[in-house]
UniProtKB/TrEMBL annotation:
Domain 2Fe-2S ferredoxin-type: 2-83
Classification via Pfam families: Fer2
GO MF annotation list: 2 iron, 2 sulfur cluster binding
The species this protein was found in: Thiomicrospira aerophila AL3
CDD domains membership: fer2
UniProt xrefs under PANTHER family: PROTEIN YIIM
Taxonomic superkingdom: Bacteria
Gene3D superfamilies: 3.10.20.30
Protein name in UniProt: Ferredoxin
Length: 83
């Protein structure tokens, strides 16, 4: 089980949910999103540490060092920062 740290909001556990966004949303985090499909970029965050695996090919291309929480799952513990 991976631990997700959201700077300024706390930590959550990843329990095999569909995406990083889904895991955080289900655990009560106020995460930005709009489409949940990688089309809009609203869920883009900065990946501070850790590694993620792409689970769907997004149309929106995040900046270098950033990820779309709707399109990835954590490989291990991760730390992210909202933009």
């Amino acid at each position: 089980m991976a631990t997700i740290t959201v700077i300024g909001q706390g930590t959550a556990e990843f329990n095999g949910e569909f995406s990083l966004l889904e895991a955080l949303d289900e655990q009560g985090f106020d995460m930005p999103y709009s489409c949940r499909g990688g089309n809009c970029g609203a869920c883009e965050v900065k990946l501070i540490s850790g590694e993620v695996e792409l689970i769907q090919d997004p149309i929106y291309e995040p900046e270098q060092g950033h990820i779309l929480t709707c399109s990835v799952i954590p490989v291990g513990d991760v730390e992210i920062e909202l933009l």
